[in-house]
Amino acid sequence: MSAEVVLAAGYAIFLVAGAFALERLSAHTNRRALRYRTAGFEYVEAHDHWVCPEGEHLWPREVDDERRLVRYRARAHVCNACARKARCTDSTEGREIVRSLEPWPRSEVGRFHRVIAVVMVALAALILVVALARNRAPADLVLLVALLAVTATAGRRLLRDLADVNGSRL
To answer: What is the C-alpha to C-alpha distance for residues 154 and 149, in angstroms, rounded to an integer?
Structure first.
């Protein structure tokens, strides 16, 4: 097995692993940021509202269909009179929570990170194809074709949650 094939295979494996690491870390960061933004608040799915630690309800005030977001806001006069206001919000219009209507992979930020991961996998596939074109030894071909199949499967998995402009699945 040639050194070029080993290096190409290693770099392709590194890129695919990096793509999935990026995917996992970005989803984790999103969940953590959401927990931080809503700490102490409870979402009541049955009535589509949030309840603050003091019992105030934050009802939907705006639905942004283009960005697929819902903005919930508490009543300003209640927040402004609350003893916890300084630790909760600096807004004089009441505490606001923004909730995405899309699951993580289909959200705007999720798609951004997913596209970067797909590009990393595509680059890995390109490296493997170039190595395949340059090396014809049987052992090299077996390794490169096997890794190309794994890379194609990884790319398909990453692509499955990306939506086209109409919102349908790829």
So the answer is: 9
